[in-house]
Amino acid sequence: AHRNRKIFAVGMGFAEHVAAYMVHRLSICGFTVFNSVHFYDYMIFREQGEGMVSNLEPSLMLAVSQSGESNIVLNDVTRAKQQGFKIIAFTGADSTLVRMSDVHFIINETKQAFVGDMPNTFFGKVIIAFEELTGEYLRRQREAAENKICYTQMKNTLRVLPCYNWDSKQTRFF
Predict the structure, then answer these.
(1) Per residue in 138-152, pLDDT tens?
(2) How far is Cα 32 from Cα 117, in angstroms, rounded to an integer?
(3) How many other CB atoms are there within 10 angstroms of residue 14's CB atom?
(4) Which residues contact 57 (CB under 8 A, 6 or more apart)?
(5) Per DSSP, what are the bridge partners of residue 106?
(6) Up-side HSE of residue 8: CA atoms within 13 Å toward CB?
(7) What does the pLDDT look like over 110-164, one tens digit per residue?
(8) Which end of the chain has the least Cβ crowding within 10 Å, N or C?
């Protein structure tokens, strides 16, 4: 549903690199996706009266934040929500971002910090979860397209058979 609309991915710090990965992956699959553009930038919004008015049709924003409390990410999500965008959040904790999102994934719920030699697996796990979700979405889209083609071909074949009375309301093939 969002393939023909603009999608935004946001994150700060290491999460910004994960958002950039999401952008590259989705753009390879034919989506129009942006990051490194804060949602309140004037290239996306124009001021009108007391508020900002979007020149975009509401679509989807992917938000990545390990803490779920990054001010820049929360500001972008707030503006996107005001414009009617759906929010999918990837975070490491029950947080403000989780409460603001339409769909959220809490991944590797820990209070890890970038100190010493302790591994931080949050960002890698976000990419793996994102890949699994993207793969499933694309598989379902492909199957739906194949079923539509098969259904149309079968329907057209049955219509030309003289001994078959086609009734689309009662006949099911799948």
Answers:
(1) 888 888 887 776 656
(2) 38
(3) 15
(4) 5, 6
(5) 91
(6) 25
(7) 666 656 667 788 899 999 999 999 999 888 888 888 777 665 655 555 544 444 4
(8) C
Query: What length does the chain have?
Result: 174
Number of C-beta neighbours around residue 98 at 10 A = 15
What integer pLDDT is reported at residue 152 of this predicted model? Answer: 60
Strand order in the sheet with 6-10: 32-34, 6-10, 60-65, 86-91, 103-106
Segment 110-115 long-range contacts (CB within 8 Å, at least 24 positions apart)? 112/66, 114/14
Residue type, 27: S
Q: Is the pTM of this model over 0.85?
A: no
Exposure on the CB side of residue 55, measured as CA atoms within 13 A: 8
Dist CA 57 CA 20 (whole Å): 22
Beta strands in the chain (DSSP E): 6-10, 32-34, 45-48, 51-54, 60-65, 86-91, 103-106
The amino acid occupying position 61 is: M
Dig out the tokens for 157 from the structure: 């074949």
Least confident of 19-23, 56-60, 170-174: 170-174
What is the residue type of 100?
M
